[in-house]
Design brief:
Main location: cytoplasm
Number of strands: 6
Oligomer: single chain
GO cellular component, one term: cytoplasm
Subcellular location: Cytoplasm
CATH superfamily: P-loop containing nucleotide triphosphate hydrolases
Number of helices: 17
Helix content: 40-55%
Strand content: 5-15%
Bound molecules: adenosine-3'-5'-diphosphate
Largest sheet: 4 strands, parallel
Low-confidence stretches: 1-5, 62-87
GO molecular function: sulfotransferase activity
CATH architecture: 3-Layer(aba) Sandwich
Strand order of the largest sheet: 4-3-5-6
Keywords: Catecholamine metabolism, Cytoplasm, Transferase
Mean pLDDT: 80
Number of domains: 1
CATH topology: Rossmann fold
Order of helices and strands: EEHHEHHHHHEHEHHHEHHHHHH
Radius of gyration: 19 Å
Structural class: alpha/beta
């Protein structure tokens, strides 16, 4: 089937280069590969469920507009911030999926695809992708774009992705936890193998302008990671202004993002995201896998993990 019939879940297909996808992504694959990145684009890449940190980066970007830019954007932002009594979060009136469009997302009409949204968006754009590095449209590398990769430990990712499959009515049927556990370990899930994903980006991180962050670090040391983002995005000056920093930290807390309609995806109807099954902002914790993994599953996971992760790959914390 085409998999994009209104309402239905998509099937999993063998996509490209051994990576599984949903059919809607494959439908515009050529166009996707020909996507024209611009030099001032910032790409945010993650394996699914590494966390909606795009909002944090977006805040950093907006702050920089306030401090560095001249011209209309600057004036609009400044006036708007002043008008809202200095409240940066008040400026974020646009859903995160519009602020950082999802590059390869290709939903059925009337919803626009990621490519369609991005082509009409003024610079500087913030772009979200779940693509493995080797399947990125080549223009991102050609244009030397900055890319922020966020990696999350495999066990929490697996659990989070399982619950996401239950509530996201566009993703393939996950089966029960046991079945999904198998699919995840063998890379038979949309966007493929977690192992290939995190190591693929890791290998490239020094060859391109890539900031490689860990979910666990962001959770534990948000100010530190936010500073790294500002440095990486050349927003050094913002670091000197500590008050907006506190506001960004607050704005991007789990509690706030869970409540914020611009970040909690409550704008999507229940036939796409059924949040009564599992909320999009579910728990946001490190180590939640312990509530899901059986002892046997954990042993099998550990064994395969050692085989699939090379010694020189990224090293993850499964708990804090
Ligand atoms: P859980 O399912 O473990 O709660 P993505 O945005 O890539 O789909 O990832 C979603 C996961 O990131 C969810 O994990 C979600 O709760 C978590 N997350 C999103 N924003 C967060 C935040 N501000 N703090 C902690 N976790 C967050």
């Amino acid at each position: 089937g085409q998999g994009t019939d209104a309402g239905g879940r998509e099937e999993l297909v063998d996509g490209v280069g051994g990576v599984c996808f949903v059919p809607s992504v494959m439908e515009r694959w050529r166009e996707l590969q020909e996507f024209q990145a611009r030099p001032d684009d910032t790409l945010i890449a993650t394996f699914p469920k590494a966390g909606e940190w795009s909002s944090m980066l977006n805040s950093a970007l907006i702050m920089s507009l306030c401090t560095f830019w001249t011209g209309t954007s600057w004036a609009i932002e400044m006036v708007d911030v002043v008008r809202r009594g200095g409240d940066i979060s008040g400026c974020l009136q646009i859903p995160s999926m519009m602020r950082a469009p999802f590059l390869e997302l290709n939903p059925p009409p009337p919803f626009p695809s990621g490519i369609d949204i991005l082509q009409n968006q003024p610079s500087p754009r913030l772009i979200k992708t779940h693509l493995p590095f080797h399947l990125l449209p080549p223009s991102f590398v050609d244009q030397n774009c900055k890319m922020v990769y966020v990696a999350r430990n495999a066990k929490d990712t697996a659990v989070s992705y399982f619950h996401f499959h239950r509530m996201n009515k566009k993703l393939p049927e996950p089966g029960d936890w046991n079945q999904f556990f198998d699919s995840f370990l063998t890379g038979q899930v949309a966007w493929g193998s977690w192992f290939d994903h995190v190591t693929g980006w890791w290998k490239e991180k020094n060859n391109h302008r890539i900031l490689y962050l860990f979910f666990e670090d962001i959770k534990e040391m948000r100010l530190h990671c936010l500073s790294l983002c500002c440095l990486f995005l050349s927003r050094l000056f913002s670091i000197l202004i500590t008050e907006p920093f506190d506001r960004i930290i607050e704005h991007t807390s789990f509690k706030n993002m869970k409540q914020n309609p611009m970040t909690n995806f409550s704008l999507l109807p229940a036939n796409i995201f059924d949040q009564s099954v599992s909320p999009f902002m579910r728990k946001g914790e490190v180590g939640d896998w312990k509530n899901m993994f059986t002892v046997a599953q954990n042993e099998r996971f550990e064994k395969e993990y050692r085989q699939l992760m090379s010694d020189r790959g990224p090293s993850f914390r499964m708990e804090l």
